Amino acid sequence: MHNNTEKHIAYVALFAAFIAALGLVPKLTLGFGVPITAQTLGIMLCGTILGAKRGAQAVLLFLLLVAIGLPLLAGGNGGLGVFFSVSGGFLLSWPIAAFIIGWIVEKCHTGSLALVAGLASVIGGIIVVYIFGIVGMSIVLKKNLWECAIMASIFLPGDIIKAIIAGLLTSSIAKARPSSVLSRQQPPQL
Predict the structure, then answer these.
(1) CB neighbours of 87 closer than 8 A, spacing ≥ 6?
(2) Fold of the domain built from segment(s) 2-184
(3) pLDDT tens-place string over residues 62-115
(4) 134 C-beta neighbours (distance < 10 Å), count
(5) Which positions ≥6 away from 155 have C-beta within 8 Å?
(6) Which compartment or compartments is the protein found in (predicted)?
(7) Does the pLDDT of residue 150 top 90, yes or no?
């Protein structure tokens, strides 16, 4: 049991670092201030590989490090202010998105893992993230939800590609190292 706990803690820390590393991929900031980054792929993979609880924990650890000022977001941003920026709603959605993605992958054992993980990434990593992000944009930009939804739609093609990548990567890892895909194992007893 003790060894399993250490393994799970290591995975949570590793995936928090993975999200940070994805922040090194150059971002593309749009005219309304929300950047296109690779970090949402990390959020999707936290859920598909680590599962609901550990995936959310990895994202919360990452966001805690951002909140204390580490420049881990794409473009080297960090600090509490980012949570009140035009991107704040998106950031706040990330742990919930990882949890929902992981929960779906944990519960749905029918069909191919690539398809389940891809669809879970669409539900949690796109729909949930967009709901929070659009509301956050609406508050910060003082625009209505419809205007913000139209602005956010520019992210959709890239996010669909990330969901497909998350599904395929999760499936490949499961084939190569089944024990590494914790979302397909017994949930942790925390």
Answers:
(1) 33, 34, 35, 133, 136
(2) Arp2/3 complex 21 kDa subunit ARPC3 (1.10.1760)
(3) 999 999 999 999 889 999 999 999 999 999 999 999 999 999 999 998 889 999
(4) 22
(5) 34, 36, 130
(6) Cell membrane
(7) yes
**Rounded Cα–Cα distance for residues 103 and 184 (Å):** 10
Q: Which residue has the tokens 């993980």?
A: 117
CA–CA distance from 91 to each of 14, 61, 65 (Å)? 19, 13, 13
User: Could you tell me the residue ranges of all domains in the chain?
Assistant: 2-184
How many angstroms separate the Cα of 69 from the Cα of each of 13, 72, 147, 161, 183? 18, 8, 31, 30, 31
- DSSP codes of every residue in 37-57: -SHHHHHHHIIIII-HHHHHH
Q: With the C-alpha atoms ordered 101, 50, 118, 22, is the resulting torsion angle positive or negative?
A: positive
Q: Say if residue 182 is exposed, middle or buried (CB neighbours under 10 Å; 0-12, 13-18, 19+).
A: buried
User: Which stretch of DSSP H or E encloses residue 113?
Assistant: helix 113-122
